[in-house]
Amino acid sequence: MAADPMEALFLGGLGYLIGQGKYAGWDDVITAHNNRLNHLRYFKVIKPAQVLHDVKELQTIYMQAETGYLFGLPDASIVMTTRFMEIALRNAKTKSEGKEAKENLVNLIEWAEKRIGAKKDLAHGFRILRNLIHENTLVKEQDALEAIHHVTEIINLFYPFEAADGNYTCPKCRSVSLVKIQKDNFYLGNLVNIVCGNCQQGSQITIF
Questions:
Q1: Which residues of 6-35 are buried (b: 16+ CB within 10 A; e: fewer)?
Q2: Where do the domains of the chain lie, and which CATH numbers do they carry?
Q3: pLDDT for 122-149, tens place per residue?
């Protein structure tokens, strides 16, 4: 699939600045961030490239859900995760039925569950999502992580893709080239080695 350049890859970002010593005095924040990133990486959450391509405003919303979790703001993360899910499912239902869907999130989840069928690996995810919608207590980090995991898995079923591509700017020669990453490698936190087509020098990017 052809993805928008800005939504496909997170090129360096915080990890690059940390490596350059730009965050002196932020050791605890950086350590906690990297620990959460490792937890996210463990789940191998396939970034939902197709829906981010189809519904442009979701690019910012999904990134806010990720960064909220990574910086220890699980309540903020869960708000953006559920907002992402609601918009994505409403768009999927609209496309499926040929008329604008106006249901609330709870009804959209019920619609999605019926469409997906009784898949045991997703049943737990639906239960977590229902609980989080109605919870009044503060969200735990693990809940925010699982919400990102399950929501992304559900949305990818409605918006399948085989590969994602985007523009890559070489940090050494600054030339821009198109990079394609297969779906199985396109998971959050994954480190991908890239060789510049111009200078032939290698560098590493993080999927984000």
A1: ebbbbbbebbbebeeeeeeeeeeeeeebee
A2: 48-161 (1.20.120.330)
A3: 666 776 777 776 666 778 899 899 889 9
